[in-house]
Design brief:
single chain; mainly beta; 10-stranded mixed sheet; 8-stranded antiparallel sheet; 8% helix; 39% strand; flat; disordered N terminus
Length: 527
C-alpha cells in the first residue's frame, strides 16, 4: 500500500469513529470528485480579442478530408484580379456572405468552403500585422481559434487589411513578409475560411478581429465586401499597350531618302524638273516643299520607324513610338503636411490609352531627379500619386516600358512636363483680447507651421476696421518669427487710437518654399 493510500485509510477510520457511515460515504464522494480531471473551460485571455462580435458559425459543408492530402496542395493559379484566392475557389454558393443577417448583427465577411486541414493561401504579397491561435470565436462552436491579418497592396498602391479566420497551424508571425500564393495556415475544424477586408487603418470599436457588426452601423465598421473588393481592385494590371500609330503619306513618285524627325516626315521625289524634297507635318497633315537652301534634319529612326507602302501604292508610312504622358495636380498649393494629388494619363501619339503601363514619379533635387514612387496605369491609362511636399517641389512622371514588349507595340521611355507643388503654411488665428482699450498696448500672438528660423520676416498682421458697413484695411504690421526649438511663433505689440469694430489676421507672404497663406480673421473691438 502506498503512503497516500495509508493516509486516506487512517482518515476514514477517524471519520467512522466520530460521524458514522453516512458521513463516511459523503467524504469518499468528495475526495473522488476532487481527484477526477475536469475539462478546461475556454477562457479568453485578457489580452485577447473580444468575442462578442464573432458569433458561432455552423460547421456544415464539405466533410473533413485527410490533412496530409489537403495541406500539401500547391498554390492555385491567380484568379480574378490576379489575386490568389484563399482556398482556391471563387464560388461560395450556400455559404454565409457579405451582410448576411445574424439577429441584430451583420456578417461582414465571406465564408469560403474548404475541408478541415485544407491549405490557406495568401492572396498577394504582404506583411503580417496580427497572427494568433487564441482569437475568441474563431474555433469550432465559438471557441478559441486561429486568425491572421495581413496588410496587402493593390496594383494602384492602396493598402488594405485582409483577415483569414478559422485557421490553425499558422506558419507566419507578426511582422514577417508573405509572398503571393504562399501557404499561411490550414482550415481548422470549422470547415470553412472566414475572410474579410478592411481598407482603412482605424477600426470603429478598436476590434480588428470582428466578424459581425451591429446592424445600426451604417459604415459596417469600415469593413467592405471582400469578394467585390478583390474583383474591382486588382493585384496586378496586365501591360496592354495600344498598337503603334502609323501615318500614311502618299507620294506622286516613289519616295527616296524618307524618314521623320521632330514631328515631321521628309522625303525626296524625282520629277521631270529634277528632284524635290517635301515636308509633312504629322500632327496637322500639312504638306510643303522645302526651298533649295533648306535641309531635312537627321532622322529619328528610334522614334519614327518608316516603311514603304506595298506595291502598287506610292508613298510610305511613319510610326510614332513615343507615348504621351500628361501630368496634372488637382491642387498645386496643398496645406503644409497634406498630400497633393497628382494624376497622369498615358496614351499613344494617337490618343489611345495604355493599360498597366509602369509610371514613376520623380522629384527634382540638387543631385538630379530622384524616384518618389511608382505605380501602373489603370486599364483606362490613368495613374494617381499622393505626395506631401515639405516645401516648393518640382515633380514629373516617367513612363518605363517593359524590357520585353509585344510585336508592333514597342514603345520608348517618355517623360511628362514637370508639375510644381507649393504648400501653404499653417497659421493659427491671431490671439488678441476681445476688447482693447484705446491707447493701450496689447500683444498679438500666434503660431506658424512648419518651423521658421528666428528672425524671419516673411509674415505680417493685416488689420481692418468696420466703417459704414465696409471693412477698411489699415497699414499692415510686420511680424518677426521666434523659434524655441520646438515650434515657431509670432508676436507683435500694437496700439489703437480709433475705437470701433476691428478684425485681424496673419499673412505669410509667398517665398521660394511656401505659397501665400492667410489665417482666419479674429474679431475684436476698441473702446
Amino acid at each position: 500500500m502506498s503512503e497516500q493510500s495509508r493516509r486516506l485509510a487512517t482518515r476514514l477510520r477517524a471519520v467512522r469513529r466520530l460521524c458514522g457511515p453516512a458521513i463516511v460515504f459523503a467524504f469518499v464522494l468528495a475526495v473522488t470528485l476532487a481527484a477526477t480531471p475536469v475539462p478546461a473551460r475556454a477562457v479568453t485571455p485578457r489580452s485577447g480579442p473580444r468575442v462578442s462580435t464573432m458569433l458561432p458559425e455552423p460547421a456544415s459543408g464539405p466533410q473533413p478530408a485527410s490533412v496530409a492530402v489537403t495541406a500539401l496542395l500547391a498554390a492555385p493559379k491567380p484568379g480574378t484580379g490576379l489575386w490568389y484566392w484563399p482556398v482556391g475557389t471563387e464560388t461560395f454558393g450556400g455559404w454565409s456572405g457579405w451582410l448576411d443577417s445574424r439577429g441584430s448583427y451583420y456578417h461582414i465577411a465571406q465564408d469560403m468552403p474548404a475541408s478541415v486541414g485544407h491549405a490557406v493561401w495568401a492572396i498577394g504579397d504582404g506583411v503580417v500585422w496580427k497572427a494568433r491561435s487564441d482569437a475568441g470565436g474563431y474555433g469550432p462552436g465559438g471557441s478559441l481559434g486561429g486568425v491572421m491579418i495581413i496588410v496587402h497592396t493593390t496594383a494602384t498602391g492602396q493598402q488594405f487589411r485582409a483577415l483569414y479566420g478559422h485557421i490553425s497551424g499558422l506558419r507566419y508571425k507578426e511582422g514577417q513578409t508573405v509572398a503571393a500564393g504562399a501557404v499561411i495556415a490550414k482550415v481548422n475544424g470549422c470547415a470553412h475560411l472566414h475572410f474579410s477586408i478592411h481598407p482603412g487603418t482605424v477600426y470603429r470599436d478598436g476590434n480588428m478581429y470582428a466578424g459581425h457588426v451591429p446592424k445600426s452601423w451604417s459604415d459596417h465598421g469600415g469593413f467592405v465586401d471582400p469578394v467585390k473588393f478583390l474583383k474591382t481592385h486588382p493585384r496586378l494590371i496586365p501591360y496592354v499597350p495600344p498598337p503603334v500609330p502609323w501615318t500614311t503619306i502618299p507620294t506622286t513618285t516613289a519616295p527616296e531618302d524618307y524618314g521623320a524627325a521632330a514631328g515631321a516626315a521628309y522625303w525626296t521625289e524625282e520629277g521631270l524638273a529634277g528632284s524635290a524634297t517635301f515636308r509633312f507635318d504629322l500632327a496637322s497633315g500639312t504638306r510643303s516643299m522645302l526651298t533649295a537652301d533648306e535641309v531635312p534634319p537627321p532622322f529619328d529612326v528610334a522614334r519614327y520607324p518608316a516603311l514603304l507602302l506595298p506595291s502598287p501604292q506610292l508613298g510610305f508610312k511613319v510610326g510614332d513610338r513615343l507615348p504621351v504622358i500628361i501630368a496634372s495636380a488637382r491642387h498645386d498649393t496643398p496645406v503644409w503636411g497634406a498630400a497633393g494629388r497628382l494624376t497622369g494619363v498615358l496614351s499613344s501619339a494617337a490618343g489611345r490609352r495604355f493599360g498597366g503601363g509602369r509610371v514613376r514619379l520623380e522629384r527634382d533635387s540638387a543631385a538630379g531627379w530622384v524616384r518618389v514612387a511608382a505605380a501602373p496605369t489603370t486599364s483606362a491609362g490613368r495613374v494617381v500619386f499622393a505626395y506631401v511636399p515639405p516645401r516648393h517641389t518640382t515633380l514629373r512622371m516617367v513612363f518605363l516600358p517593359p524590357s520585353t514588349q509585344p510585336a508592333a507595340r514597342t514603345y520608348l521611355t517618355t517623360t511628362s512636363v514637370s508639375v510644381s507643388l507649393t504648400p501653404h503654411v499653417r497659421l493659427t488665428v491671431p490671439v488678441i483680447p476681445s476688447v482693447v482699450r484705446r491707447g493701450h498696448t496689447v500683444a498679438v500672438t500666434g503660431f506658424v507651421t512648419p518651423r521658421h528660423a528666428s528672425g524671419s520676416t516673411c509674415m505680417s498682421l493685416m488689420f481692418q476696421r468696420l466703417e459704414d458697413g465696409a471693412w477698411i484695411t489699415a497699414s499692415p504690421r510686420a511680424l518677426v518669427c521666434h523659434d524655441n526649438g520646438v515650434r515657431s511663433s509670432y508676436r507683435r505689440l500694437v496700439r489703437f487710437a480709433t475705437p470701433g469694430s476691428w478684425r485681424v489676421r496673419a499673412v505669410h507672404t509667398a517665398d521660394g518654399a511656401h505659397a501665400r497663406t492667410s489665417s482666419r480673421w479674429r474679431a475684436f473691438s476698441v473702446r
